[in-house]
Amino acid sequence: MLNINNGASKIKREILVRIAKLQLEGNLEEGVHYIPREMAPRNSESFRCCVYHDREVLRLRVMARLGHSVEDYDDEKKLSEFAREALEREKPTDPMLTVLDDACNACVRAHYMVTNACQACVARPCMMNCPKNCIAITGGRAHIDPEACVNCGICMQNCPYHAIIRIPVPCEEACPVDAISKDENGKERIDYSKCTFCGACMRECPFGAMMDKGQIVDVIRKIMEGKKVVALYAPAIAAQFRAVPGQLEAALLKAGFSKTFEVAHGADITADKEAEEFEERMERGDALMTTSCCPAYVRAVRIHAPELNPCVSETRSPMHYTAEMAKKEDSGYVTVFIGPCLAKRKEGLDDPYVDYVLSAEELGALFMAKEIDLGSCEPLSCSSGPTASGRNFAQSGGVAEAVRIRLKHPERLKPFVINGLDAAGMKQLKAFGKAAAEGKSAEANLVEVMACPGGCIAGPSVITNPKVAAVQLKKYVSTGK
Prior knowledge:
The chain has helices spanning 7-24, 28-31, 35-39, 51-65, 79-88, 125-129, 154-158, 170-174, 200-204, 216-224, 235-238, 247-254, 263-283, 295-304, 318-329, 343-350, 360-369, 388-391, 398-404, 423-437, 466-478; strands spanning 97-99, 111-114, 135-138, 141-144, 164-167, 180-182, 188-190, 210-212, 229-233, 259-262, 289-290, 334-339, 356-359, 415-419, 446-450. The protein is an alpha/beta fold. The chain has three domains: 7-106 and 172-213, Alpha-Beta Plaits (2-Layer Sandwich); 111-167, Alpha-Beta Plaits; 226-478, 3-Layer(aba) Sandwich (Fe-only Hydrogenase (Larger Subunit), Chain L, domain 3).
């Protein structure tokens, strides 16, 4: 997994901060034009062929951060026009992802390569075991015929010197549902009819060519218009910032939100309802129920494992219940869910109770633009917090455990956790779907699925190392009821 601390992420986050600052100053339309040239000055070292190519890619990145699909790119249009459209729109647009052609490296197809560690040994297991006889020893080293190679990897497995390596295409490799492929120019394209919006491609592309479409402009506009904008922050967000309970709420109010709602309260509702639903399903003879709070997983079932669809819990997500709670309190609230998940943007677009979805990156940029130091914020007191199990939804295993402790007969529960919907996770998912379709009893009767390995604290838009976030989450959970 690509570390969150990398150059591509740094550039994308700097753009967010610059956009937020300009908008807060009332100068977005005029100032946005200068972002590319300020970030890539004339005499600076370029990442690509020249500084002007760098500026063009930065221009596309700015478009995506403004909430536009780069596929709709018009090079005759000024960034100020894109900014104006962003300031005037009333609703974000599908799809949630966009691909930057100019940023894409057009990586060669995944293949195996012999390195200079090759010893041209007498055993020659790479050559002897190749099923296509496409390896020859010439010039004191093994060579692979790319035309005959079928990328089986047997040569790499057999080399005693580890001299053969696999060169992957990171975004294609990361996608668990084969939704990414090359077009006729070698550039990557996303098939949105297959995409689950898990965000793995966005997280793994080392060129930052896959980008989520921002909603920070929309939220700041509503705040500046004096609307009652309320923040619904997910447990995973509390784990992104090194703050004691109450400090994040204080910072959110300082940033301009009228009120905060902890989504862990919605998680408690989800856990209560899923426990009740599980018991009802078991009573009527169902063999299996799966959780439903991860929208990337739910979409994966709908598209790629429909035979498992009857087993998916009908209970809604914590985001939905928290947003519903807020709207019932005041229908005039503008609800903004804040989390590290790309798929939540899609879920939010389809949920009438959710107006906008901000990422952890966008919230961090807003804090930086307003010069809010979380650590110096005076913690707010909270009279009634959520349960510890509700807060623990943010990591793998947390949902299943929250359901277990609410059951009347927890000893009947046979949980199974799919920790990440990578290729192996999808294989497990389809196996459960096949068993369910054939009426076979599975090794589990409750399956929890998280699209991101480790859970939401490792989502595609996190700003904290997942291991550090796990420690922070543990502290946060310990303060629950």
